Amino acid sequence: MSTLTVGIAGPLTTIQDLGRPGFAALGVSGSGALDRGALTLGNRLVGNAERAAALEITVGPFSAVADRDVWIAVTGAWGRVAVGGHPIDPNHPTFVAAGTSIDIGPAASGLRYYLAVSGGIDVDPVLGSRSTDLLSGIGPTSVQGGDVLPIGQPHTAAIPALDVAPWSAPDAGAVTVPIRVGPRADWFTAASLERLFSGTWTLSSASNRVGARLDGTPLERSVTADAHGELPSEGMVAGALQVPPSGLPTVLLADHPTTGGYPVIAVVASGALDLFAQLRPGQHLTFRHARP
């Protein structure tokens, strides 16, 4: 079996594919890559199936060596990436000879890199997925320096004839996120609903793969909602904006719990969830109504 030996793993590196949907009734969240677009792009660039497992590298640095010739692509965050000491471009299929070092520096833009390797990271699947779920502990453990990871057999098809994918660096300024109001918007005052869209929110440093915590002016519950007390636990989905008693929303992400008792004021449009993978603590965001 071919392998990838990790030298430096950085603050957090996990194995991720497109997740394990369909098990919420068992208390298992979908998990998977936070930036699904970056994962699937990387896999296409190196000739893998889109849902092949890759490495999700938070911030960096990271280094590794494969024991066979491989093709790699680094997508998502932007920073210095080198093969054998020579810089390479992001979003670009690159040939790496066996024994040659792959080095990824700290991200200059965005937060999470995706390292796709031809053949994919071939750890054993759990419930149909190779993803690490940090909340439940399902799937492989976080990657550490010295780990030796199995690499699958590459497809026989040629690497796609694409010089570079037309993607830019993740936005370092304020971003606008489309959301749909509800299902518990009636638990909040009209002023709070207006503030949700008119205010500027800041990503908290307490954010992680479970949820993106937001700082700003707290949202207030309505008098009617306070009279009802707390909600019984109900099902949660990725993108739900839960509002705890502090009034500061948390956007649930891939490793979210499948149930929760805090009211959900709105839900992020599915296509916009990838934005939260690349937001950095302190970065600003605003919300707008999603198109029907």
TrEMBL record:
InterPro entries found in the cross-reference section: CT_A_B (IPR003778), Cyclophilin-like_dom_sf (IPR029000), PxpC (IPR052708)
User: What is the protein's species of origin?
Assistant: Mycetocola miduiensis
Q: Which SUPFAM superfamilies match?
A: Cyclophilin-like
Supply the name of the protein. Answer: Biotin-dependent carboxylase uncharacterized domain-containing protein
> Which Pfam families does the protein's record reference?
CT_A_B (PF02626)
Q: Which NCBIfam families match?
A: urea_amlyse_rel
Keywords annotated in UniProt: ATP-binding, Hydrolase, Nucleotide-binding
Mention one GO molecular function.
ATP binding
Q: Ranges for the Carboxyltransferase domain?
A: 25-291
Protein origin, superkingdom: Bacteria
